Amino acid sequence: MPITTQHPQPGIAVVTVDVPPVNALPVRGWFDLADEVTAAGRDPATHVVVLRAEGRGFNAGVDIKEIQRDKSFDALIGVNHGCAAAFSAVYDCAVPVIAAVHGFCLGGGVGLVGNADVVIAADDATFGLPEVDRGALGAATHLARLVPQHLMRALYYTASTIDAHQLHHHGSVYAVVPREELDETALDLARSIAAKDTRVIRAAKQAINGIDPQAVHHSYRFEQGFTFELNLAGVSDSARQAFLEKGA
């Protein structure tokens, strides 16, 4: 299955995304991811969730080919709702979510990581929002949780990437480790959290979310409104098609 949950040790749920070739998720994939993370957090036996991926990179965002194949707006609307659901599932998960990131983390990947509680990254990890090159907007909400405001704007306008060491400098990545040590480092941190009284940790998650200065649900949906405008104007369709033809 593309998205699975395993329990390698008591108290730890590991949600793995494996959608070759680049973990670009279709509509159903985003909802499935939301369901897996939510279910893991609702399980009283789960004290902490690790979100990771197989393959070349952590996440390449949405499946643009699926959107382009759909002559209506159903896929576009579906993927926007799906992304919102997955990002919210990570943020609202009843227990802390550790994102273990390797390779590329783009678009929707930044949405997931920006809403995670802790980020562990491999030394080959890069993060970015290519949205403006695809005729879309979104996840500035989440990139702003990883870097300072003006850097976020520069990265967003230029569709540039930033590496794990730079994010570690800004304090948004907890640790940067060699790729082969990523999973074990994430699990080691998960074990530390899982050893705590889960009643206290679950209360702490609610408390921290409650004092968060960023209303992540509302701000992301606000961003999505401009994506719909660009699609209605025909801007997004031509940008997506140009991207697909360039990669052909």
Automatic annotation (TrEMBL):
One of its GO terms (biological process) is fatty acid beta-oxidation. This is Enoyl-CoA hydratase. It comes from the Bacteria. Keywords: Lipid metabolism, Lyase. Belongs to the enoyl-CoA hydratase/isomerase family. It comes from Amycolatopsis bartoniae. CDD domains: crotonase-like. Coiled coil: none annotated. The keyword Chloroplast does not apply.
